[in-house]
Known about the structure:
By secondary structure, the chain is an all-alpha fold.
Amino acid sequence: MFFSLLWAVLKSMRPKQWAKNGFLFAALIFDGKLFAPPELMRTVAGFILFCVFSGTVYIINDINDLEADRMHPSKRNRPIAAGQLSLRAARIVVALFLLVGLPLAYRESIGFATLALAYMLLNLAYTKWFKHISILDVMVLASFYVIRVGAGVELIEVSRFSPWLYVFTSFLALFLGVGKRRAELSLLEGEADAHRKVLGGYTIPLLDQLMGIVSSMTIITYSLYTFSAPNLPENHTMMLTIPFVIYGVFRYLYLMQIKQSGGAPEDVLFNDWGMQLSLLGFGLAILIIFYLL
């Protein structure tokens, strides 16, 4: 009984989505503190807390969308809609997570706790209002990634973390958000508006134009970071990481337009070998340049 309840809670928290919380590690990695035990432990703790907070938001959304989820062909299998997790138990879980999680976040730092609370409130506002407003919906989605990066900065004392990484994260997140909308619109075609009302405010040509803008700016802003940010190697070896970013952007465009995937970035991350190799190469290059050279 206990383990079935625990499993239902875990499923409701959408563990696959937790990969997005990896953006909290950006400050730790790019500030050269990956192997500093105190900073590493604080960032890991922050990552776990953000998994709890993001999971709490999903549970709240499932509580509010219970009736609609029960009529949806796939969402009806979610634990709350399927009756595997009762409304009473779900509300108790939410209360426990907030009562335990927020004080622990405050213990890490006031700035981290503030961003964590802002993340949850903005998520709820997105579900209630912003997800129904074209353009604004993807901008709010992008802000979630930037908040995660900022939360990671609040966990450690940074010395070389550049504001350029905030700009890069913003455009990368917009790229993923616009790509998700394009994949949904392409997949659902004439029925898109019936499944997600906000898709009625988009067209494939418009989304392709937006993709061209944000994909270009993603590459440009990262490139500017590699040779203009302070405290990077003076020999500009960070520029060697640019091809990995370019390939990752091109690969995502290929998957979205040729393979008709990309509706869920986390699925692309877990299932596509090209993206995995690109991320692996990027990560190894960062480790060598920041920590071995």
